[in-house]
């Protein structure tokens, strides 16, 4: 545990150093997440080191504060900073941390009260720690922390999934913007949350668990700390920096039907002819801004034109042309000179994963199966 915690502290230092050098806010929040998790592990680390028995009057129990109330919003804001271009931490966001700050103030208050009582210097825990905190506040806190983690994880997953939908309205190749690391990050914390919830139910309602039995959760948390720290440090979360990709979502079929005609046939034909003659989809970095500039429209107009006129998001609209280009090259025997992936790159794709996924989505077959079917 001590080795893992020390490694976690090294990663915290690296993240903070990069934050102060580059001012990438996601580095700061990830570092703070690791600080909280490492702090939680210290509770068990000092226990196994024999601190509680060797130094019974050090008052350490007052400062081993469960920090899930701070961890929950930290996870939320880490994902928010990674999926929001030029994120700014506003004053109102401090409201998310009021419960955690209140818990710290509460611990300070009971410590202050207990320290004024006679005999406090000869014991580990004072009157309020024994009669208020441990029998009443800590059980209540367990349920409050469970509710906070559940809500924040749910909101964070929803925010991330909405982000994944939104990038398809702006980027033609979304692979490097999908931030799969964030999904892994959320899954890890969700699994640990479930593990802890099951452990607490067993320990509260079925049988009391010894601290050595609860140790496994802390070991998993420590291992997760190292993985999250390393992976988070080497993952670029600045892809959206200085990029405003907020666009109007694609309207539903019923909305389009009510509002018709939202776009003119002239505009539809203009865009269709431009795509077929100029072939801007061959540029793997093509995004909504680029295409709007090329066709002399503003971004909102083009988004509306594609969404309402073609009933597609920008990503599907562009990739449909790319798939048709791939199929055209395959029909001409291009596969004799290039691999399937090489052909995909020629037609504007920039990753194998995206190419395979899009091809399967639009043709209901894999690229390899399609090639075999026309050979």
Task: Give a description of the structure.
With 375 residues, the protein is an all-alpha fold. It has 2 domains: 2-233; 253-374, Homeodomain-like (Arc Repressor Mutant, subunit A, Orthogonal Bundle), CATH 1.10.10.60. Helix content is 69%, strand content 0%. The chain contains 16 helices and no strands. It has helices spanning 2-22, 25-48, 51-54, 68-83, 98-115, 127-167, 180-206, 211-233, 253-259, 265-278, 288-294, 299-309, 314-331, 340-346, 352-363, 367-374. It is elongated.
Strand residue content = under 5%
Number of strands: 0
Number of domains: 2
The shape, in one word, is elongated
> Uncertain segments of ≥5 residues (pLDDT<50)?
249-260
SSE pattern, N- to C-terminal: HHHHHHHHHHHHHHHH
Largest beta-sheet details: none
Distance between the termini: 59 Å
SS summary, helix count: 16
Overall pLDDT confidence: 88
Assembly state: single chain
Give the tags.
375 residues; Arc Repressor Mutant, subunit A; 0% strand
Q: Helices and strands in order, then pairings?
A:
Elements: H1 2-22, H2 25-48, H3 51-54, H4 68-83, H5 98-115, H6 127-167, H7 180-206, H8 211-233, H9 253-259, H10 265-278, H11 288-294, H12 299-309, H13 314-331, H14 340-346, H15 352-363, H16 367-374
Short recap of the structure:
This protein is mostly helical and 375 residues long. The protein contains 16 helices and no strands.
